[in-house]
Design a protein that fits this description.
446 residues; seven-stranded mixed β-sheet; 10 helices; 30% helix
Length: 446
C-alpha cells in the first residue's frame, strides 16, 4: 500500500495504543493523520484480557467503547485462594459510587484490537500495512518536520509522530531515548521473573465456582501464583486459529514459573501447560484425582506464550527530532502483568496524549511559533502515571511472592501464611475490599 508524502500526525503501531490514538484524533476532528504497522495483519493472540474502569471511562469519552461493552464479560470480583480454601474476595460493585462502569471488562486483546479496528474503519480510516520504519531525520527545509523512511523506500514527512510500536520501539531507539527499570536492572522477584500464559479448553469441561465467567481467580502456592479466567464461549470465533474451530468453553491460565524449573519453552506445548496446571492450578481444573474428584485434562491448546516480568520506562515520553515525538504504551513503559494494568495504561496514554496533540495543532495554526508547553506537560504527567503503575505492580508482585517456608526453626511461621491470615481477617471489612477494587480499577491513576 502506497503512503502519502505528507501528514500532520504519523502513528507508528496499530495495537491497542495506536488504534486508540487514531480514534482519539478522529474524535477531536483531526483527520490529517496516517497510521502504519510493520505486520501484515493485526494480532490474533489473546495476551491482555482486562479493560479496567478508568480505561472504559476514557474510551467512552472518545466514543470508542460501544463495540466493547456488549461483547465483553463484566467482572464481578477477584478471588484469592490456596489450592484448598478461599482466602479473600474483593467485589467490584462498590465502585459504582465512583464510576458509571464499576467493573473490569474481560475481553482478549485480539478482540479489543478487532473492535477498535472496526470502529476506525467505520470512520473511513485504514491501517497501512506492512510498513516498517527504518529511519527518521529532521527535514532540511522545515525544522519542525521529520522525514520518516520505511523499509520499502517510501518516505513520509510528519509534524507529529506517535510511537506506539511496542517495547522494542524503533521510534524510541532512533530518537535516542533511554529505556530502563527506574529502580535498577534487577527483577522484582526471582519467584516471578518468568511467566507462562495460555488459552485452553478441557475434557470434560470443569465445574465449580471458579469456572463461572465473571470472576478473576488467583491461586497462591509455595513458589508460584496462578490465575484462572473463564472466558466461557464468548470469544470462541475470535480465538480460533489455523481454521480449527473451538466448541468448548475457553479458560485463560497464567502462572509464575519458578527459576529452579528452568526456562519455559517459547510457545509451551500442551504437555507443559498440563503439568503447570496440575502443579500450581486450582483443584477444579487439574487431572490429579487426589485433588479433583472429576479430573479434567486439556483438550485444546488454543494459544500459549512465555514472558518476563521486567519493568522499564522511557527516560522521557516527549522529545523533538524536527517533529514532535511522543511515546505511548509499551514504547513508553513496560511492567509486570500484576493487576492487569499494561494495556489499560497504554490506552489512556493514547487518549490523553492525542488530546494534547490536537490542542497543540490548533495553537500552531494560530501561532506557528507556539512553544511545546502543552506537549511537555502532558508527557510529564503520563510519565508520572507510568512510574506510579510500575510501583503498584511491583508491590503486588512482592505480596504475591511471599512463600510458605518457615521464617526460622524457632519461628514456625512463614510470610505467606501471615499474608493469608491477614487477608482472611481484613478481607471481611468492606473498606479493605473497596481498596483492592479501587487499586485494580485504575480510577486513582487515570
Amino acid at each position: 500500500m502506497s503512503l502519502p508524502e505528507n501528514t500532520t500526525v504519523l502513528i507508528v503501531g496499530a495495537g491497542p495504543a495506536g488504534l486508540t490514538a487514531a480514534l482519539a484524533l478522529a474524535y477531536h476532528k483531526c483527520h490529517d493523520f496516517v497510521i502504519v504497522d510493520a505486520t501484515t495483519e493485526g494480532q490474533n493472540t489473546s495476551r491482555a484480557y482486562s479493560i479496567n474502569s478508568a480505561t472504559v471511562e476514557a474510551l467512552v469519552s472518545i466514543d470508542a467503547a460501544n463495540g466493547l461493552l456488549p461483547q465483553a464479560i463484566k467482572a464481578k470480583s477477584i478471588r484469592i485462594a490456596s489450592r484448598g480454601s478461599e482466602i479473600f474476595e474483593a467485589k467490584f460493585d462498590p465502585l459504582k459510587k465512583y464510576s458509571a462502569h464499576p467493573y473490569p471488562l474481560i475481553t482478549p486483546q485480539n478482540v479489543t484490537e478487532l473492535v477498535l479496528g472496526q470502529k476506525l474503519r467505520s470512520l473511513g480510516v485504514q491501517v497501512h500495512r506492512p510498513h516498517r520504519v527504518v529511519g527518521m531525520e529532521q527535514n532540511e527545509k522545515d525544522p519542525r518536520v521529520t522525514d520518516v523512511s520505511f523499509e520499502d523506500g517510501q518516505v513520509i514527512r510528519a509534524r507529529y509522530i506517535i510511537g506506539a510500536d511496542g517495547a522494542r520501539s524503533t521510534i524510541r531507539t532512533i530518537a535516542g531515548i533511554g529505556f530502563s527499570d527506574p529502580e535498577g536492572p534487577n527483577l522484582v522477584s526471582q519467584v516471578f521473573s518468568q511467566m507462562v500464559a495460555a488459552d485452553v479448553t478441557f475434557e470434560p469441561e470443569p465445574t465449580g465456582p471458579l469456572t463461572v465467567e465473571g470472576h478473576l481467580n488467583g491461586t497462591v502456592s509455595s513458589d508460584s501464583f496462578f490465575m484462572l479466567i473463564p472466558f466461557a464461549n464468548r470469544f470462541n470465533a475470535e480465538l480460533t486459529r489455523n481454521g480449527k474451530p473451538i466448541t468448548k468453553s475457553v479458560f485463560r491460565v497464567s502462572c509464575a514459573i519458578p527459576v529452579k524449573n528452568g526456562e519455559p519453552p517459547h510457545a509451551p506445548p500442551k504437555e507443559y501447560i498440563q503439568d503447570m496446571i496440575d502443579t500450581y492450578g486450582p483443584a477444579c481444573i487439574t487431572s490429579n484425582s487426589s485433588l479433583n474428584r472429576t479430573p479434567v485434562k486439556i483438550d485444546q491448546l488454543v494459544w500459549s506464550t512465555r514472558f518476563r516480568t521486567n519493568s522499564a520506562i522511557a527516560d522521557r515520553i516527549f522529545t523533538r527530532l524536527g517533529a514532535a515525538i511522543l511515546l505511548v504504551g509499551d514504547a513508553a513503559h513496560v511492567h509486570s502483568p500484576a493487576g492487569g494494568q499494561g494495556m489499560n495504561l497504554a490506552i489512556r496514554d493514547a487518549i490523553f496524549l492525542t488530546e494534547a496533540v490536537t490542542k497543540h495543532i490548533q495553537a500552531s495554526a494560530e501561532n506557528p511559533d507556539v512553544d511545546d508547553t502543552i506537549l511537555r506537560e502532558i508527557a510529564e504527567a503520563r510519565h508520572t502515571r507510568a512510574l506510579e503503575t510500575i510501583s503498584f505492580t511491583k508491590k503486588l508482585l512482592e505480596l504475591a511472592s511471599l512463600g510458605y517456608d518457615p521464617y526460622a526453626w524457632w519461628m514456625p511461621f512463614s510470610w505467606g501464611s501471615i499474608r493469608d491470615l491477614t487477608l482472611r481477617i481484613l478481607g471481611r471489612f468492606d473498606f479493605v475490599q473497596l481498596k483492592v477494587a479501587w487499586g485494580m480499577s485504575g480510577l486513582g491513576r487515570r
